[in-house]
């Protein structure tokens, strides 16, 4: 804010020297010029893995988010509201490939045991 030393802002409801709180001049219908406190900008939630913006989730301040319904805070998917769809897909594919690899190793061991038994 530009008016750190302007004591006319001291209405008792906010701290004056907090640089995060922004104010702007607004002309009222009565012709008076008053200060209006602006709220901090809302942040769009981001993916925990790739830091991409999460789609389908309402941007909101923390206190406002606590009052939102569940539908606006998450998406109906595994890791909904935490990871983006790309990261979830990657996670599923990786888990599938690891399981496939375990099966291949098990089959190879069984084949080797079978060939040793024949000899």
UniProtKB/TrEMBL annotation:
InterPro entries to which the protein is assigned, alphabetical: Ribosomal_eL34, Ribosomal_eL34_C_sf
A family per Pfam: Ribosomal_L34e
Molecular function via GO: structural constituent of ribosome
Keywords, alphabetical: Ribonucleoprotein, Ribosomal protein
GO-annotated biological processes: translation
Top-level taxonomic group: Eukaryota
GO CC, any one term: ribonucleoprotein complex
Stated family: Belongs to the eukaryotic ribosomal protein eL34 family.
Name of the protein described by the UniProt record: Large ribosomal subunit protein eL34
Annotated organism of origin: Rhamnusium bicolor
């Amino acid at each position: 804010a530009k008016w750190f030393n302007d004591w006319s802002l001291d209405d008792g409801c906010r701290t004056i020297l907090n640089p995060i709180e922004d104010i702007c001049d607004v002309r009222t219908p009565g012709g008076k010029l008053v200060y209006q406190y602006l709220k901090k900008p809302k942040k769009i939630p981001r993916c925990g893995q790739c830091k991409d913006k999460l789609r389908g989730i309402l941007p909101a301040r923390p206190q406002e988010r606590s009052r939102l319904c569940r539908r606006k805070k998450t998406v109906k998917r595994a890791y909904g509201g935490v990871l983006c769809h790309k990261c979830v897909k990657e996670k599923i594919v990786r888990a599938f490939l690891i399981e496939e690899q375990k099966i291949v190793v098990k089959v190879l061991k069984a084949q080797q045991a079978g060939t040793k038994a024949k000899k």
